[in-house]
Amino acid sequence: MWKHGTSAHLVLLVFAISIVNADIYLHIPRGSNNRLNENTATRKNANRLFDSQNNNRGGYNVGDKTDAASGDNAANQYNMKYLQSGSWKTMSGDQGKSFLTIEWTNQHGCGGDQNNQQKQNCALILQYMCQDDTQSPTADTLRNGVTTDTQGYTKPNNNNIAADRKTTDVNDKRGYHESWDWYNKCYLRERNKGLFVADQMLTANNGLGYSSAIYTRQNPTGNRYGYECPEERDYFPYWHPTPWSDIAILAENASVCSHYTSKSFNVQPYGECSQNSSRYNNEASCRQNGGVWNLLYSYLEKAPDKRSQAACDATKVTGLTYKWAVPFDGTVPECLVLLDKPDCREAPWSRSNHLGNGVHGLPLNYTWTLPNFPSGKIKSCVFRIRYNISTDDYDPYKTDYKQNEEFPKKSPIKQNPYVYVMSNQSPLRLALNTAQYGRVFQDRSHVFKLIPRPVGLNQGRIYNLNVRGKRGNIVQTYPAVEYDFAPNTLEIKKEDMVHIQWTGSNTHNNNNPAGDGQAGDAGEGKGGTDRSNFVELSDRSSNFPTPFENTQLWKNVKVEWIYFGKNDISPQDLAINMASAGYYRCAINCTDSVASKAQMNNLLDNAPASYEGALLRFKKEGSYHYMCTRNNNFSNRSQKGGIIVK
Ligand SMILES: *[C@@H]1O[C@H](CO)[C@@H](O)[C@H](O)[C@H]1NC(C)=O
Ligand SMILES: *[C@@H]1O[C@H](CO)[C@@H](O)[C@H](O)[C@H]1NC(C)=O
Ligand SMILES: *[C@@H]1O[C@H](CO)[C@@H](O)[C@H](O)[C@H]1NC(C)=O
Ligand SMILES: *[C@@H]1O[C@H](CO)[C@@H](O)[C@H](O)[C@H]1NC(C)=O
Ligand SMILES: *[C@@H]1O[C@H](CO)[C@@H](O)[C@H](O)[C@H]1NC(C)=O
Ligand SMILES: *[C@@H]1O[C@H](CO)[C@@H](O)[C@H](O)[C@H]1NC(C)=O
Ligand SMILES: *[C@@H]1O[C@H](CO)[C@@H](O)[C@H](O)[C@H]1NC(C)=O
Fold first, then answer.
1. Which of 445, 381, 380, 456 is nearest to 615 (CA)?
2. Is any ligand 2 atom within 6 A of the Cβ of residue 390?
3. In terms of pTM, does the model score above 0.70?
4. CA of 637 to the centre of ligand 4 (A)
5. Atom number of ligand 2 nearest to Cα 390
6. Distance of CA 637 to the CA centre of its chain
7. N or C: which end of the chain has fewer CB within 10 A?
8. Which CATH number is 459-645 given?
9. Does ligand 2 come within 6 angstroms of the Cβ of 182?
């Protein structure tokens, strides 16, 4: 894995560093850390979809729809469904926006000010990718897959380069985020030779006679992770078209924001050499070699009903830009709805050597205003967060290939250097891995859906309220987390809407191998199963639910939407539906009523692992509290939350 080691001792040491460091974990939405549905504490395949650089223990399994493991039936996986924003650009203030508060932990610290200085430079990059949801999947359909294997890739050589390798490489049972074509272009495109790689020796020949974008300082021998492009992964803003749309950059200092936002692919096109000469990574060499340098665009979505440039240009919608241009994933101009500039702000403060909360004990978070897709279509999407840390031992923005070891001017950093601080020349050795000096960590969600708002609800704010965590006690779940509701205290205004939804797995057994942590899945109910429910509490320090007769919550909400399509459900029936995690739908007069259905297990074992939810409008000010009866275990585990309506 590490090419530069000259002694076995050195190689071992470097390897140890790379597995002990732990890193960035996404909790809302649930980050996979490359897990799928394995019942072991460690993930099975760190190369499944992306390069996380994380510890093998983190991550959450894909959700299951029912009380049974989805196994090899992808239709029984649960995809979280978030209601898109309405057409908020035509409204004032926050009206029409849907909010999803992302939560994560990052290990090395970020954010801060003069009084609370960081020990490294850092940035967090939040992105997503979506496609139209489809009932008839193709090779390129986003999917979690049902096996933990990595998609295939037949390396090109001079004999097979023109042949159809994709059809044999892509497997519909395996996870798929970036497309095969994206990785293939990366494999074929020369790497950016202007980059600083320190003393790393990057593989010089991809089999076609040159070094390409699959080799980077952090990935010098070109290990493959799904169809992610290593050069794109390691650098942001990237200088070629990418399939990712930028949501936000949380930078070490807001003063660097214009650097990020002006170069974001959301707001400016990037070039690519025409397909058969896609080896060339800049306009001059592309043309010299007879290629055409095409400027390609990112987009919010395509508007295929606008079939001509005239029709596209003539489309005027408040707040939206329609442009006739070649999309990053196409070859001919189409009508595109362009993206907005990403948000950029200072990262929330966190401390080094700690996978936990930020200031005031609150989780590291960013509230994403979910997009509004003007087509009104359902989208299938993936969310990605990257965490980039670098040092001031060299200027990360001004140091380039001229400081690479291969030039006469030596690299400013070297592998595990010996330094002299004592006058009598007894050197001290530093722990320095040049492949990780400046390092990017990553986590991604499983596939989720962005669904249009129900008819009549274009206006108004929607807040997502979900459950984070997985089965197990604090050491068994680490570096994932124990169950809790998130956002734990949700502050909203009267008339705002809350979408309560959760997902869980039936295979979170956390069995051996447990890597460098503990196996085991302490918890209530059937081993390996995540369950949650939602019952009212009169006050947050108590642990007994409020009987329905004394309700404050249910009598003050209006159901605007519920997953089984009947929004005139009574408050009492809704309370039953949520208390039973969707097992019952009402007390007496419906399918799945308490009166008619087989009795539910007291610990929800036979209730579904995921609850698609209801959209509640809070009609009255007040503080409402709630808990999960199964997982709340006083002195060991708390799963309670509050909604404060002002
Ligand atoms: C952020 O950048 C500004 C302007 O360059 C600088 O004055 C300030 O000290 C920086 N803050 C930190 C914490 O480095
Ligand atoms: C990480 O930071 C370095 C500067 O140290 C920068 O060159 C690189 O583009 C950044 N990568 C990502 C993914 O943010
Ligand atoms: C592209 O490839 C085709 C054959 O596959 C060839 O005819 C054409 O000359 C090539 N164009 C360039 C610019 O290399
Ligand atoms: C998110 O973090 C900020 C601090 O950066 C905090 O003020 C806010 O309450 C947090 N939000 C949630 C929902 O935890
Ligand atoms: C409560 O949690 C503890 C610690 O995980 C566990 O030992 C116990 O079995 C749990 N449940 C009950 C009902 O005691
Ligand atoms: C039961 O529901 C049906 C259909 O929704 C309705 O027609 C009937 O009146 C209801 N019966 C009772 C006792 O509520
Ligand atoms: C909490 O866990 C401890 C063991 O860690 C156990 O002895 C205790 O009974 C648990 N409390 C409850 C309420 O189950």
1. 456
2. yes
3. yes
4. 22
5. 5
6. 26
7. C
8. 2.60.40.420
9. no
